[in-house]
């Protein structure tokens, strides 16, 4: 069993990752389950930089293997915003409703064909010494609706439409979302590297 710490307090992300990591091989805990974890300042200018910061700083502090990810939404009509500020776009970290309201306000009057966007996810694994061992990234293309729809997911999911399905991430079945999402695509690149690393360490 390979013990991993997920460098976030977001329980919904933890659930998604646990579904992708076989329980018989990996044990995954979130920071909410570990006393003494620290808050890492996300000062990077890219998702990859922030994922590395969260993984390495937390790993050095805890002396544990830490898996961190940084993800967010880039909207073409907004020159890539909210980008790395996705979780705090409206000012308060993690206020999904406020972030969605601001996004809709910023896109007011923008026609549907110009509301294209993509989700990004970057994953980083740090060893207990704070040295990056694995990185992987994934994206998922869609567009931003003019109003929210669906009750699943989190973040911008109620606004992010997968055009081929004519549904938002918040409307899609979890199995379908898991197949399409930026996080799943990054994990599919990450997992073979993780298996090779664990085999080498055994």
Automatic annotation (TrEMBL):
The residues listed in the UniProt record as binding substrate, with positions renumbered to this chain, are 8-13, 71, 154-157, 177, 182-183
**Keywords tagged on the record:** Hydrolase, Magnesium, Metal-binding, Nucleotide metabolism, Nucleotide-binding
CDD domains from the xrefs?
Answer: HAM1 (cd00515)
- Give the enzyme's EC designation: 3.6.1.66
Q: Does the keyword NAD apply?
A: no
Q: Which InterPro entries match?
A: dITP/XTP_pyrophosphatase, ITPase-like_fam, RdgB/HAM1
For activity, the cofactor(s) needed are:
Mg(2+)
Cite the active-site annotation. Answer: 70 (proton acceptor)
Q: Which SUPFAM superfamilies match?
A: ITPase-like
Q: Provide the cofactor note recorded for this chain's UniProt entry.
A: Binds 1 Mg(2+) ion per subunit.
Quickly give the catalysed reaction. dITP + H2O = dIMP + diphosphate + H(+); XTP + H2O = XMP + diphosphate + H(+); ITP + H2O = IMP + diphosphate + H(+)
Q: Where does Mg(2+) bind?
A: 41, 70
Gene3D superfamilies assigned: 3.90.950.10
Superkingdom assignment: Bacteria
> Which HAMAP family does this chain map to?
Non_canon_purine_NTPase
Its function, per the record, reads:
Pyrophosphatase that catalyzes the hydrolysis of nucleoside triphosphates to their monophosphate derivatives, with a high preference for the non-canonical purine nucleotides XTP (xanthosine triphosphate), dITP (deoxyinosine triphosphate) and ITP. Seems to function as a house-cleaning enzyme that removes non-canonical purine nucleotides from the nucleotide pool, thus preventing their incorporation into DNA/RNA and avoiding chromosomal lesions.
Oligomeric state and partners? Answer: Homodimer.
This protein is called: dITP/XTP pyrophosphatase
Gene (UniProt)? rdgB
